[in-house]
Structure formats: C-alpha cells, structure tokens
Design a protein that fits this description.
3-stranded antiparallel beta sheet, 3 strands, alpha+beta
Length: about 220
C-alpha cells in the first residue's frame, strides 16, 4: 500500500505551527497535523483496531509484509488506502520521535493536543498503545546502538547430542551441547554454532547467574 503523499511533504500544513516535546521543542513538519486529523474519519471498527497496523508500522523499516497488512486492513474496514497511509505515517513519526526522547504519555498528549486541538479522539487513539510501543521501540534503539559497535547476541538455539566414539577412542558417551548464537553486527544478522562440553556449560551457567544477580542488585533490567 503506497500513499500518494507523505507527512514530510511541504505542500500541506496543519492548523498553525507548533513546537513539540517529541521534537525537542522544534516546529512540527508541514502535513503532520493534517494527516493525524484523518484518524477520526476512520470507521469506528477501524479506530478500535488501529494499533494492529500501527505496531508493525513502527519498525525501523516498512516491510512488504507490513504493506500487505495495511492493504488487508483497508479491505476489511473499507478504508481509503491513501488516507490510512497518511494517518499511519503521521502516527509513526510522532510515536518514534517521542520514544527516542523517552517522553511520558502526558507530554505526548500535550503534543497531540497542540497538533489537533479540536479532535481529542486523535490523542486518545495514539495514547492507547503508546507506553507499550515506547518500551518496544526503546529496546530496539538500545539493540541498534550496541550492534553498531560490535556483535550483539539476539537469539539462541540449542541441541543436545552425545559423542559416541571417534578415531581417537571408543565408548565415549559424552554429552555435547550445540549452541547456535544469532547476532547482529553493523546491521547484518549472522550466526555461529559452538560445541560445548558439560564442564563449560557449568561455567556458562555460573557466569549467567552472576550477571543476572549483579543486574538485579544494580536495578538494571
């Protein structure tokens, strides 16, 4: 689904210029207020399900799957594709900028009231899922910041095997764990598989326990 216009276009303007918390006091780009104002025009059922399309649309990149989801949403609720695209992009802009600055919902509410002073429904619709979305976005921000400077572990798969024998010896019967570590580095996803014997698994378990204990004492998640 490709809207014919974007919130970054300078051809539209909202009802006056406003400085926003989500922009660090900066002025709102032209078009954002007007595009947010399209939300109340959605059918009530579409408004109630808005966050089902907003959540995937908040990702760093709009994927083909997200575009297809938006198309299905439009078909299911008889929504104009261009209007939904503009509204979603405006919501995405405000929410991502607010999450970047770790704004509380109260500050986002003030921004939305400045942008759409005559339509409190816009504020209510956006705030309905803001806190959960902010937590997810900030987690992604941390991951991206760390991954830019080295390998970041993002997934783990394991399998337990047994070493029966080799040319070096028979009847070994040694448990062997296969750990496949998925990591990000410079925006690229890769993986490495390690073979781990029981003694090293014990060391890994102890090390993870120490890290978790220290994190709990320091109050970090």
């Amino acid at each position: 689904m490709n809207g014919s216009s974007s919130t970054d276009e300078s051809t539209r303007s909202g009802p006056g210029r406003a400085s926003l918390h989500c922009l660090g006091g900066g002025d709102v780009p032209p078009g954002v207020a007007g595009d947010l104002g399209l939300l109340p025009r959605l059918p009530v059922e579409a408004q109630q399900k808005l966050w089902t399309v907003l959540v995937p649309a908040l990702a760093d990149r709009m994927t083909k799957q997200t575009e297809e989801l938006l198309d299905m949403f439009c078909a299911a609720y008889r929504v104009d594709e261009d209007e939904l695209g503009r509204a979603v992009k405006a919501c995405r802009f405000v929410i991502r900028e607010a999450a970047k600055r770790d704004l509380p919902a109260s500050a986002v509410a003030q921004d939305l009231e400045r942008l759409c002073p005559d339509t409190p429904l816009v504020r209510d619709l956006v705030l309905a899922g803001y806190e959960q979305a902010k937590a997810q976005l900030r987690h992604e921000i941390v991951k991206a910041a760390v991954a830019e400077h080295g390998k970041l572990l993002v997934g783990l798969r394991w399998r337990l095997d047994t070493v029966e024998a080799s040319e070096r010896g028979a009847h070994l019967q040694m448990p062997l764990a296969l750990l496949t570590l998925h990591y990000l580095e410079g925006g690229e996803r890769s993986q490495v598989t390690l073979q781990v014997l029981p003694d090293m698994m014990s060391e890994l378990k102890a090390a993870c326990g120490h890290v978790l204990d220290d994190s709990a004492r320091s109050g970090r998640p």
